[in-house]
Design goal:
By secondary structure, this protein is α/β, with parallel strands linked by helices. It folds into two domains: 6-54, Helicase, Ruva Protein, domain 3 (Orthogonal Bundle), CATH 1.10.8; 64-202, Dna Topoisomerase Vi A Subunit, Chain: A, domain 2, CATH 3.40.1360. The chain contains eight helices and seven strands; from the N terminus they run αααβββαβαβαβαβα. The strands form two sheets. The protein has a five-stranded mixed beta sheet. Strands 1-2 form a two-stranded antiparallel sheet. Helix 6 (148-161) links the parallel strand 5 (139-142) and strand 6 (167-170). Helix 1 (6-15) packs across helix 2. The longest helix is centred in the N-terminal third of the chain and has 17 residues, at 38-54. The protein is elongated.
Amino acid sequence: MEFSSKLIEKAVNEMSQLPGIGKRTALRLVLHLLRQPNDQTNQLAAALQTMRNEIKFCKSCHNISDTSLCEICSNPHRIDDIICVVEDIRDVMAIENTSSFRGLYHVLGGKISPMDGIGPNDLNIDSLVEKVKQGKIKELIFALSSTMEGDTTNFYIFKQIQDCDIVTSTIARGISVGNELEYTDEITLGRSIMNRIPFESSLKL
């Protein structure tokens, strides 16, 4: 792709590094921004810079947050002894959209995947195990995707806490194997949470 401007070329190259954005789409976006008033483009740039510099991770659940304790963890109306274990913020958003879960979350920040060089120490697993061992949690709900990596991560965590006095469950398999939670419709996801099953039973399926 030939460019008449090095500035345009650099902007397109940077934009095309975003997921799902190819060079042609990046060029359309850059040209669109050029047609907008300077203030609008500057506001976009400022918003991205502010987000990158000021975003925080909740000290309790590791969810992305504007403050040290996210709005969910600081909400006194949430059930604080039931924790739903998810991969990332997209899963939190998907479950919250169902309005079917009133407990808290624990965001792992990924799944165990030896092929990708991701092990237990690369995830927020130790802090979850510590929460369980403190004895303040009644139930742990595994809500990772039904993939080999998701199942491996669930089982690893289960082995770490199996001697603790806690109920472990997993969302019902109304979600197809291999599907990511963020792409599951709200009704199916909500029913999967409400109809969750004991984790030990899932090992026999």
